[in-house]
Design goal:
The complex is a heterodimer of chains A (147) and B (155).
Chain A: H1 3-11, H2 22-30, H3 34-47, E1 50-57, E2 65-71, H4 78-86, E3 91-97, E4 103-109, H5 112-126, E5 131-133, E6 137-141
Antiparallel strand pairs in A: 2-4, 2-5, 3-4
Helix pairs in contact in A: 2-3
Chain B: H1 3-12, H2 22-30, H3 34-46, E1 50-57, E2 66-74, H4 79-87, E3 92-97, E4 109-115, H5 118-132, E5 136-150
Antiparallel strand pairs in B: 2-4, 2-5, 3-4
Classes of the chains: A alpha+beta (147), B alpha+beta (155).
Chain lengths: 147, 155
């Protein structure tokens, strides 16, 4: 990563312009040209430094529902259960964590009812309990990671 | 959500097209004018349906490899104030209040902490512990071992 890559990561995490030529506008602030900026963003996406470039939507504010779920799965059954959970398109993120509750995933669906029935379905499929932890309040979101 | 907004969301949730006039490209896809796309995006940004527009970095690729979910059992009455204070710390990306599930799960405050080493993350966690003080009865931390899936939220 060179200076420009770092500047893109550090300064373009929000506030991307809403105008006809947004890359040209953002490039001006970074003191490069439009084409260079576009190519560099593409490269950062290809290398996996950025996972996405665009609007970050808040699913809940758009009328959907989501929740954090945790499961405590015995080691010998872990891969099977993880695969069953991942198979659902409603599972957005799934992490293995070092804890008695070792499987943590986020479910996103159209409503709370849809979430509840999905939780039941995963319990039936896997034979393990799912702990459903919907957010009750949010205090801050989005760390500005520095490169 | 109105059908136009929904089409805009579907056209952009994977990312903006990397072309000089991305909003014109989206307009073409959705079948409305560029001005309308800009107007709808501004409105979604204003009411919070869009959190922000820009680069979404991958923690791991930036060297943040010691990512811990920290969980805290704090007084319910103090949770709001404490949550706001924890959420404002620079190394905390997300902070939420969630229900306890007793007896398995006594924690009601969740804070995601990102460090470049476990040592750095430990210092951060200690800072949270000091901040919460006596309002916190117990806490735990859960390091991520492996990303099993990360597709982002989709409509």
């Amino acid at each position: 990563m060179d200076e420009l890559d770092r500047a893109i990561v550090n300064r373009l995490q929000g506030g991307f312009p809403l105008c006809e030529r947004p890359f040209a506008r953002a490039a001006l602030d970074l003191k490069v040209d439009e084409k260079t900026l576009i190519l560099r963003i593409q490269a950062l996406l290809d290398e996996g430094v950025l996972t996405r470039f665009g609007p970050m939507y808040d699913v809940e504010r758009m009328g959907g529902a989501f929740t954090l779920c945790a499961m405590s799965v015995p080691a010998e059954d872990f891969e099977r259960v993880a695969a069953l959970v991942n198979a659902h398109p409603e599972v957005a993120h799934n992490y293995e964590r070092a804890h008695r509750f070792n499987l943590w995933f986020v479910l996103a669906a159209s409503s709370r009812e849809a979430i509840a029935s999905l939780v039941e379905k995963i319990e039936r499929e896997t034979g393990h309990r799912v702990m459903n932890l919907p957010r009750e309040e949010e205090y801050f979101v989005e760390l500005r990671l520095s490169a | 959500m109105n059908p136009i907004d929904e089409r805009i969301v579907r056209a952009t949730q994977g990312g903006l097209p990397l072309v000089p006039a991305p909003y014109a490209r989206i307009a073409q896809e959705v079948g409305i004018s560029e001005a309308q796309v800009l107007e709808r995006l501004r409105s979604m940004l204003a009411d919070g349906r869009i959190r922000r527009i820009g680069a979404v970095p991958n923690h791991y690729a930036l060297g943040y490899t010691a990512n811990a979910m920290t969980v805290w059992d704090v007084d319910d009455e103090a949770a709001g104030e404490l949550g706001a204070a924890v959420g404002a710390l620079p190394f905390v990306s997300h902070c939420y209040r969630r229900p306890r599930r007793l007896p398995d799960w006594p924690y009601n405050l969740f804070a995601m902490v990102h460090g470049k080493s476990k040592k750095e993350t430990k210092v951060c966690i200690e800072e949270i512990r000091m901040l919460l003080g006596a309002a916190c009865r117990r806490h735990d931390l859960l390091y991520s071992v492996r990303i099993l899936k990360k597709t982002g939220l989709r409509l």
